[in-house]
Amino acid sequence: MDSTHESEPIEELKVGFFPELFLQRRIWILDILRRENISQILEVGCGEGQLLATLCRPAPWLPAPPPEILTPMSSPTSSPNPDEPPPPSPSYNDDDMPNLHIREVHGLDISSEDLKFAVENITPPVDMPEVGSPGVRSYVTGLQRWEELLAKVWKGGLEVINEEFVGMECIVSTEVIEHLPENILSAFTPMLLGVYHPKYFLVTTPSYTFNARFTAPDAPPSARRGYPDPTGRTDRIFRHDDHKFEWTREEFKAWCQTTAEEWGYAMEETSIGRAVDPDPYGRDEELEGASSAVFFRRLDTMDNGAREAKARAIISQLGIPQEPHTVLAVYQHGVNPAAMKPRPLEEIAATVKAKMEEYREVFMRVESLWYETEIAVQCGGWIEVMVRAIEQSPDLNLKRESDGLTQRTSNWSVELVGGVAFDPWDPSNRVDYIPPDWTPGEGPYEAWADDSDMEEGSTGADGDVSTYTSDADADTDTDDDDETNVGWGKRPRWKTLMKESEGDILAGNGWDRSKEWGDDSGWGHPGSSAGWD
C-alpha cells in the first residue's frame, strides 16, 4: 500500500441533524410545556434568550370561553337538566396541538454579553402597520396579544438563592449542567429541586455515548477532533472547550434516578437528536441521541417545606458566596383592549362575509380569517366566538368535513353562500390589473413581481431550502455546543411578506405542521410555540 496514503489523517464522520439539534431540544421542551399546560417558567442558563423569545410570543387566541360568554350548542334531541352544570364550552383545538398560554417567564444567566440579547428578546414588540391593500394578507402582521405576560431577565449564578423563584411552576435547564464547575454543580439539584421545588423540571445535556458516532469503530483516538477533559479525570474528548464533563447514557440515567429519589420526583428520561443519515456501521440504536434529556415531575411523597429546609441547609454548608441576583429588565406585555369583550355574533358574521367578498374568495380557511385583525378584535380573542358566528349565519357555511370525514379544526373552512358577486366592468377583476398608485419595486405587490432570484433547491418544512449548507449559514444558539449542526440554507424571495416568522418556524412560532413531515393536513397556524411532536 502507498505509504503516503497510509499517513493521511483519518477524517471524522460527517453527522447532520434535521431539524438542527438545538431546535430538536427546543421542540422537546415546548411539547412538554404544551402537554402540561404550563404558564410560569424559569430558564436557568438562558444565554441570549432564544427560548425566552419563543415563550414571549402571544398565543393566537384565548382558551375556550366560559359558558356565560358562549353557551355550548346542544343537540336537537337533548333535554338539558337544570340540576346539572352546563357542559364545558367547546375548544377549537381539542383535536390539535394546544397553544401555550404563558403568563410569566424568567431568564437567568451569568454572562452580561449574552444577557444583552436576552433583554432584547423579551422586549415587547412595536406594533406593526397593517397590510391594507385589498387581496393581500399576512399571517404575522397584526398578531394580537390577548393575555398579559410578565417577563424578567436576571444576572447571577444558579448557586445563589433567589426568593422570587421559590415555588416556580416549571424550571428549564438546557445544555447547562455540563458547564458547571464542581462546587457549583454541588448546588444544582439542591437549589433547583429543593429550594425552588418546581412542579416540573426539564434538563438536557450532551451524551458522550453519541460521540462515538463521529468516528469509525476501529478509528484511533487521534481521529476524534474536540477538547480533552479539562479536569484530567478521564481521557474523553468533549464537544466544547468549556465542558467540565460529558455523561454517557448510563451515567446520565444513574444521575436521574438518584436525583429523583433524593428530592421526591418522578422522571421521564429520553434522548434527543438522531442523525439525519443512518450510521454506516449500524450503531444508531446503540448510541441513541446526541443529547440526553429528563423530565422531572414533583411527587407528593415529600412535603415541600421539608424539601426546602433540607436544601437550604445543604446550600448553607457549601459556603458559596451569595451575591444577590440583579434584575436587568422587567416587561409587562399588555393586551388588546378588546380582549374578552366580543361583539354580537351577527356583527362578526357580517365582517367575515365582507372580508371574503373583499378578497373574492368563495372558500377560506377558518384560521386564515382569524388572522384578519378586525375579525379577531370583534371576537375578543376567542376563535370559538367566530366559529359560532359563522355557524349561525345564513350567508356562511362552516365546512367541518371532507369526503364525509370530520377534519381537524386547523383544516376547517368557510364557504360564502351564493359565491362572490362578479362585476366584469370593474378593472380590478382583470388579471393584468395594476393599481394606479403602485410604484414598481415597492409595496406588497413586489413579492409577486419577480421571482427570478429564487434560490435553487427544494423547499423544506418552512419554505426554506432544505439542502444542507455550511455551519456559517446555520441558525445559531448560544446554548448549542455541537459542532455537527447543519444549516437551513437560504430563504427564497417569497418569504418577504412573512419575514417576521423567520427563525421562529421550528422554534415553535411558525407553521404548526407541514407535508414534509408526513402530515397531509396542510399548513397550521403561526401560533404560540407551535413546533412538532
Describe this structure as you would to a colleague:
With 533 residues, the chain is of the alpha/beta class. The protein is built from 14 helices and 15 strands. The protein has an eight-stranded mixed β-sheet, sandwiched between helices. Strands 11-15-12 form a three-stranded antiparallel β-sheet. Strand 6 and strand 7 form a beta hairpin. Helix 5 runs antiparallel to helix 8 (304-318) and helix 9 (345-358) crosses helix 12. Mean pLDDT is 79; it is low at 1-7, 75-79, 128-140, 447-480 and 482-533. Residues 71-81 have a biased composition (Low complexity). One of its GO terms (biological process) is siRNA processing.
List keywords for this structure.
533 residues, 14 helices, three-stranded antiparallel β-sheet, disordered N terminus, eight-stranded mixed β-sheet
Q: Could you tell me the mean pLDDT?
A: 79
Number of helices in the DSSP assignment: 14
Order of helices and strands: HHEHEHEEHEEEHEHEHEHEHHHEEEEHH
Tell me the helix content: 10-25%
The beta-strand count equals 15
Radius of gyration, CA atoms, in whole angstroms: 27 Å
Largest sheet: 8 strands, mixed
Assembly state here? single chain
Structural class of the secondary structure composition? alpha/beta
Portion in strands: 5-15%
Task: Give the overall form.
Answer: globular
Taking pLDDT < 50 over at least 5 consecutive residues as the criterion, the unreliable ranges are 1-7, 75-79, 128-140, 447-480, 482-533
Q: How far is the first residue's CA from the last residue's CA?
A: 51 Å
Kindly report the spatial arrangement of strands forming the biggest sheet: 8-9-5-4-1-2-3-10
